[in-house]
């Protein structure tokens, strides 16, 4: 080890004031994923090839869809979905401010204008009853987010889209496993988009996918995923070099075999990990039963939550104090999210201000995501509960 490296290591340890007793998230990728990646390394194709295609087949099968397309992010999946549906400059897309910034950025990347509609105070999902009045002649699509893993009420959303001739694209980054009244992501929309970012329920570091039942749309999306090229490396491997062409303007959003190899073994564990998170959620509910100043997102009848994030709402301006308590106790936590319209770029560019979307703002000031992942030790839940109760009362 050279001197600069060891130096760097020492500095990092010294500068690391946070000793994390209770981490927010830990991945549990290990021997199976390593061996799966090892198989790819033994073969000739590191980029998009058979391993990606196998992941796509199995992912589509899991979600009961005709097609899945593996990409390098959910942001890219949403961007491509908008492009493939011919949504761009001059068009408006209705979405929620209570989300990760990527949802809004994808709309901007496509050249369209995001139109926010406030959220339901009980769930944090887009308030479907308020959408109709935001629809104009320019509206082309709705891009809802299944916040924390609760599927939006897709039937009324789909009805609004049918009635107004709008496209429907789902940001299902939190919701691979979720259902509502038997509806799953992609059942009632043009595409559903997923993220395999480092802390998502399925993870390969960075990655994404979309699913669709529309075969024409799928063909378009497949071209857009890789520069618009009519032949790929996998084709060359199979049939030798053939001249290729570019018929449409495309992007560089393809997933490679290495990332797909990390994901494949996780598909077999998806239901088991969901059960584990369900158990941990129940333990949290018990440990935090009747704690004052703490509100749980409501889970409507008929909803099967994907249990991605465990978010609670801390009332009476207590969130900041709790965050500080967590930092002192070495407990990881996150704020999901500060509403997008209050981020500086969006305030400066679009003139958004405080008060524009009051429900999202209230939830954004109250929300705290607690440590939550399938292999989380039970004891950590009691540590978190103890610190919460000390601040919140009881
Ligand atoms: C993580 C996330 C995204 C972005 O996913 P990437 O794969 O990082 O592009 C989009 N929307 C939501 C709600 C997310 O949580």
Helical segment count = 14
Report the structural category: alpha/beta
How much beta, percentage-wise?
A: 5-15%
Helix % is 40-55%
Provide an overview of this structure.
Mean pLDDT is 95; it is low at 1-14. Helices cover 41% and strands 12% of the residues. By secondary structure, it is of the alpha/beta class. The chain is built from 14 helices and twelve strands. The chain has a seven-stranded mixed β-sheet with strand order 1-8-7-5-4-2-3, sandwiched between helices. A three-stranded antiparallel β-sheet has the order 9-11-12. It has helices at residues 3-15, 31-42, 50-63, 74-84, 101-109, 154-164, 215-225, 233-239, 257-268, 270-287, 319-329, 344-350, 358-366, 378-392; strands at 67-71, 92-95, 113-116, 139-143, 167-171, 179-180, 191-195, 208-212, 294-295, 303-304, 310-314, 367-370. Helix 4 runs parallel beside helix 5 and helix 10 (270-287) runs parallel beside helix 14. The longest helix is centred in the C-terminal third of the chain and has 18 residues, at 270-287. The structure holds pyridoxal-5'-phosphate. Pyridoxal-5'-phosphate (PLP) binds next to helix 4 and helix 5. Pyridoxal-5'-phosphate (PLP) binds at residues 73-75, 99-100, 102-103, 145, 171, 173-174, 195, 197, 208.
TL;DR of this structure?
This protein is an alpha/beta fold.
How are the SSEs ordered, and which strands pair?
Blueprint: H1 3-15, H2 31-42, H3 50-63, E1 67-71, H4 74-84, E2 92-95, H5 101-109, E3 113-116, E4 139-143, H6 154-164, E5 167-171, E6 179-180, E7 191-195, E8 208-212, H7 215-225, H8 233-239, H9 257-268, H10 270-287, E9 294-295, E10 303-304, E11 310-314, H11 319-329, H12 344-350, H13 358-366, E12 367-370, H14 378-392
Parallel strand pairs: 2-3, 2-4, 4-5, 5-7
Antiparallel strand pairs: 1-8, 6-10, 7-8, 9-11, 11-12
Pyridoxal-5'-phosphate is lined by residues 73-75, 99-100, 102-103, 145, 171, 173-174, 195, 197, 208.
